[in-house]
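Box 3.1 A note on notation
Throughout this textbook, protein chains are presented in two layers. The first layer is the amino acid sequence; the second is a token string describing backbone geometry. Keep the layers aligned when reading.
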Amino acid sequence: MSSSTRQLQVLDTEYSADSVEWCPISGYQDVMVCGTYQLAQQDFESQPPSDTPDESGTTAVPQTRLGRLLCYHLLTEDAVHLSEFQRTDLPAILDMKWCHSSLNEYPGLAIADAKGILSVWTLQGRQDSENDDAGRSCRSLTQQCEVQIVEEGLVLSLDWSTGRQQSSEPAVVTSDSQGQLTLCQISPTATGTNIVSQWKAHDFEAWICAFNYWEPTIVYSGGDDCKLKGWDTRTPCTHPTFVSKAHDMGVVSIHSNCHQEHRLATGSYDEHVLLWDTRNMRRAVADVHVGGGIWRLKWHHLNKDLLLAACMHNGFHILDVSKLTDGNPTVVASYMEHQSLAYGVDWCKQTISSAQMTASGATQGKPLLASCSFYDHSLQLWEWLS
């Protein structure tokens, strides 16, 4: 219910916002990044661009797509709030993900952009130490390498292989507007990216891709052709391991659960979240109609039964999947304060002490989240009061 969440802060991102990611690395979990996408000299309200995250499908005539990477600290003095420490102009950002483990001793961030490029960045500077302003002021997010994924198209999504298995040379998989998947290897120093393989996965846009974190040679993809597919990257990937048409519209979100083996969540423009047992992909084990088109899904970083959903036309929702044997997942909280398309959302990984909570006026022990919406270019910080 909307009463189970509370808004803490609203920020204007200037450009349309579509991606939010909290850093998962210990010592840097107070850092959050927001990615934006804006068509130059485009009237969004009267003519939404067809290659932005929307149901419209095919790519329109190429236009200048601007983006900006916004970096924030979470501060707890006086009030829990986000404070910007860096902004970088880039091509429009379609997706971002932090590596689950450090890259060359620093947190690593991969960015998918509208020029068809995958870039890798590292967050350098001191770790957080309870509101150490001097330490935070030394931080900077710096690009280390990039690779051209597609010449005439957009990189639409990405995922790291490191959900459960750390590696000195982690893999990144991308999907693009040409329907391709690309598997890349990141060098141990994070200064180089090598394309390992690339293949045609979908007839239209490949909106989403994701690793099976328990078996990272397995990759999943979803496309505008309404198909969910699996791929074994040990093979040439000429044929998928399975093809599912369980969703009635384009498949736009997939996330593997790093705390429970064989559990996979998918979402679609058809407004349904499906849960799967990856040992049998012929039929989903659960189906819940959340509404609005499910643009992003995020399993909780500690609780295997909590799933966060960004639902485009219907806000943001938290699902409890703990009672699958007794029925379908239930929505236990909703955040409906955004006035436009709900796209980016993530759980804050940082644990805030009771002393910090008391000083800030926030509620002790309650999860913090951040979300963003598109046309109103809004970034919001909120808490779940459950």
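Helices lie at 133-137, 354-360. The chain is about 5% helix and 45% strand.
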